[in-house]
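Dear colleague,

Thank you for sharing your sequence with our group. We've completed the structure prediction you requested, and as agreed, I am returning the results in plain text so they can be pasted directly into your records. Please verify that the sequence below matches your submission; if there's any discrepancy, let me know and we will rerun it promptly.
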Amino acid sequence: MATIGRPGATLVLATSNAGKVLELRELFGQVPVKLKSLNDFPAICDVEETGSTFYENAVIKARGFAVQTGELSLADDSGLEIEALGNAPGVYSARFAGENTGYDVKIAKLLKLLDDTGDKLRRARFVCVMALADGDGRVIHTSEGICPGSIGADPRGKNGFGYDPIFIPDGYDRTFGELEDDTKSVMSHRALAARLILRYLLDFIGV
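Please find the predicted C-alpha cells below.
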C-alpha cells in the first residue's frame, strides 16, 4: 500500500486538465511529496464518471486511479450549480452541451437558458468534492468546498478556465476570470476543499 509518510512518497493528482493540474500543484506545493498528474501515466485508462453526485464521482475516480497507479491518488469532481436552472449543469458541467464542445459554446448556451428563466438574482455556486484514496483503492478522506455567487450577464476575463468568466463570487464585482490567482487560492471552491485535504495530510498522516 502506498503511504504518504514514506520517503519519496507520490501523490497523484487524478486529472489531465492543464488548468486544474496547475491550480492543484500550487495548492499542494507545501506537501513534501512528489506530485504527479495523469499526464505522467500515458498507459492509464480513463475512469467513467457514473455517479449522480460530486461525492460519488470523486470517490469513483480516486479509487480507480489509485488502483491503476498503485499510488495515493487525489481526485475531485466539481461543477457549477445555477439555482434558477434546478442546479444545472451540476455534475454534468464538463459535459454540458457536449463533452467535446468548447466552453465558449457551453457558456453561451447556459446564459441563454438562464436569461429565458427571467430570474433576476442569477444565484449560483461552484461546488468541489475531493477524495483521497490509497494505492489499494481505499478512500481515506474526503472534503467539500462551496463558493456561492451569481452569474454575470456576459463572460469577462481570461484568467482561469471553464465557467470562470461568468461566475461572480459573493463579495466581489469581478468574475473568477478577472480575479487574481492569489485571491482565488483563498476562496475558490477547489481551494476550500483542498485546504481540508491538506490539513488531513499534514496533521493526521504525519508528513
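Summary note from our side: The longest strand covers residues 139-151.

Kind regards,
the structure core
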